[in-house]
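Retro notes, structure queue

What went well: the backlog is down to a handful. What didn't: a couple of records were mislabeled last round, so from now on we paste the full input next to the output in the thread. Example, using Histidinol-phosphate aminotransferase from Alishewanella maricola:
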Amino acid sequence: MSKVHPLARDAVKAIVPYASARSSMSGGAVWLNANENALAPAYQLDGTFNRYPSCQPKAVIDGYAAYAGLAAEQVLVSRGADEGIELLIRSFCEPKQDSITICPPTYGMYAISAESNQTSVNKVLLKNNERLDLPGIFATSPKLVFICSPNNPTGDLIPREDIIAVLEHFKDQALVVVDEAYIEFAPEASVVSLLSRYPHLVILRTLSKAFGLAGLRCGFTLAAPEIINALKKMIAPYPIAEPVAQIAAQALSPTGIAQMQQSVATINALRDDFITLAASLPGINKVWPSNANYVLLQVSDAAACVNALIAEDILIRNQSSQLGLSQVVRVSIGSPAEMQRLAGAMQRYFQPNQRETA
Ligand SMILES: *Cc1c(COP(=O)(O)O)cnc(C)c1O
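Corresponding output:
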């Protein structure tokens, strides 16, 4: 790592830079390592860009509010859901004083944003990688509890009754943040209907996954107006560039939503086929059930598996460093052609002595 300037804050010097899926890519033709959507539609831009954009573009806010069944006052748009995570921590956690609670194995950015705000992280492992450890969570005193459902990287849905138990416990004490980045792949599991009952519930959403717009950097925070207003004080004056607003508004139009739902149906079917294949291969010790556009696999040697696929120009992600997991790889669901290439490569790696099936 290159040296950090001596005048930088101690907290900044201590940070280990986040290795994103993109930064660890070394070429490769088939990208199945960042849960992106390979079936993305193309978009058009028009007009000039000489004016500063609106902080919260009305067409985007109204579009998302209509899509989520909420009022505009309950919606914040930001540079990806990642900025929503950061805004929540910066707005609600006093540095060096408050903490957040997370349930590993889970999405990495909660801990990273906490660290950069000098906020400590209570880690309460999922039970069996699927249920929340409620007594463990209740033993912490955080300002924010992060629950990811479907959970990245396991793909599990967190049971609604567990989320409700956490909401009941932390009334008037902490915000409960449910990260629904992948909810379009299992829309019936959304807890958006609980917003009217629990004013301390916050839901994170994104256009990066099912909508196929990871390159756009556009995400949403859904919550009571008082929470949204706190976040608006902390957000940059012009977080959403005009081209981003134009494309997001197109994605949230009835046509855009119908396209998204069609690609979700395709991806869910490809995922189920891939799970069937993976479960049949010797050397794959566990296949997690998935409610999203990725599948977690336990293998005997995760690094060797990743490297064998890299040799065939296919990138998947080693998730073995996650707390509570070992020798696991996460495979994002790509296009039909990409999944066919992946199937061939996996058969060659896991069944080297067998002739490939056609
Ligand atoms: C991808 C992802 C995000 C971040 O989404 P962006 O909108 O691209 O910042 C948030 N949470 C989870 C669980 C994710 O997998």
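Agreed that this is the format going forward. Reviewer comment attached to the example: The chain has a mean pLDDT of 94.
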